[in-house]
Amino acid sequence: MAKKRVHEIAKERGMPSKDVIVVLQKAGLDVKAAASSVDDADVSRAFDGGPADEDAAADNGAGQSPAGAAEGQDRPAQDGQTRARPTRGGRGGEQA
């Protein structure tokens, strides 16, 4: 699958890179800068409003965090897997 940079997508579509980033982020893509790379299929899905291929339609968002779950927040492990707990402390493993 071919990848394009956000600034290239913006140039093709005649819009600012910031607007392209907003559209891609609303589509659930982890895009932070104009130099970020994005798959063509993800671009089509974000701008055309639907899956670009059957793989994207079959995915149904598997592997994404549940809605409302914050990064680093303790959640129960799924499928019997254990979850690593964050450590406390500052530099070099020092305890507070």
Short précis:
This protein is mainly alpha-helical and about 100 residues long. Helices cover about 35% and strands about 5% of the residues. The chain is elongated and about 50 Å long.
The counted number of beta strands is: 2
Strand order, sheet with most strands: 1-2
Give the C-alpha Rg.
18 Å
Overall geometry: elongated
Could you list some keywords that capture this structure?
2 strands; mainly alpha
Overview of the structural elements:
The chain is built from four helices and two strands, in the order E-H-H-E-H-H. With 96 residues, the protein is mainly alpha-helical. The chain has a two-stranded antiparallel ribbon with strand order 1-2. Helix 1 (6-13) crosses helix 2. The longest helix has 10 residues, at 17-26. It is elongated, with a radius of gyration of 18 Å. The model is unreliable at 52-66 (pLDDT under 50).
Summarize the topology.
Elements: E1 3-5, H1 6-13, H2 17-26, E2 37-39, H3 40-48, H4 54-59
Antiparallel strand pairs: 1-2
Helix pairs in contact: 1-2
